[in-house]
Amino acid sequence: MKLYSAPGFSSLADHIAMLEAGIQFDLVKVDLETKQIEGGGRYMDINPTGYVPALMFDDGEVLTENVAILAWIADRAPELAPQGHLGRFRLLEMLSFLATEIHKRFPTYLSLPEEAREPTGQQIVHWFGFVAGRLERGYLFGETFTVADAYLFQLAWGATHLGFALPEPLGEYIARIEQRPAVQAALHREGLA
């Protein structure tokens, strides 16, 4: 199995979640600018959208999009998903929220001239404030780390590196999640720590 990723991009969430789940995989670095795969090959042949992540199974099937890959991981490692009769759906709800309300705004924000970024930046901070309110017991779903926390960590960690001042308790949350062995391993493997 191969996880196609770009250091520091949203694929970091999948990388962390796969390590947390104990899933064996090879990490394949993608240059998002040139769409080339480290070691040779065109990434567009793997994922025609050109976005990371992409997870290629041993049979050649490819799964893309954070929501789908993180849900797949949670199905294989139920301890990384919220429990209860609506647990799977609460997970999909949160992953979709993170993808559509926070993640999707970053490309827009970064493509704007600096003087035009403020409204989009305010929207990003607003939605981070919404999820910060969910962290009163430590994680998005209470006292247990889930694949959704891997995604929120990556988004919040990336936002702080872009200079965003995030509402508390996100600063403490980032620092605490960053100390997890799987997060440390992922950051080292991607050359980010």
From TrEMBL:
Coiled coil: none annotated. InterPro entries: Glutathione-S-Trfase_C_sf (IPR036282), Glutathione_S-Trfase (IPR040079), Glutathione_S-Trfase_N (IPR004045), GST_C (IPR004046), Thioredoxin-like_sf (IPR036249). It holds the Pfam family GST_C_3. SUPFAM superfamilies: GST C-terminal domain-like, Thioredoxin-like. Residues 1-81 form the GST N-terminal domain. It comes from the Bacteria. CDD domains: GST_N_Beta. This is Glutathione S-transferase N-terminal domain-containing protein. It comes from Rhizobium aouanii. The lineage of its organism: Bacteria, Pseudomonadati, Pseudomonadota, Alphaproteobacteria, Hyphomicrobiales.
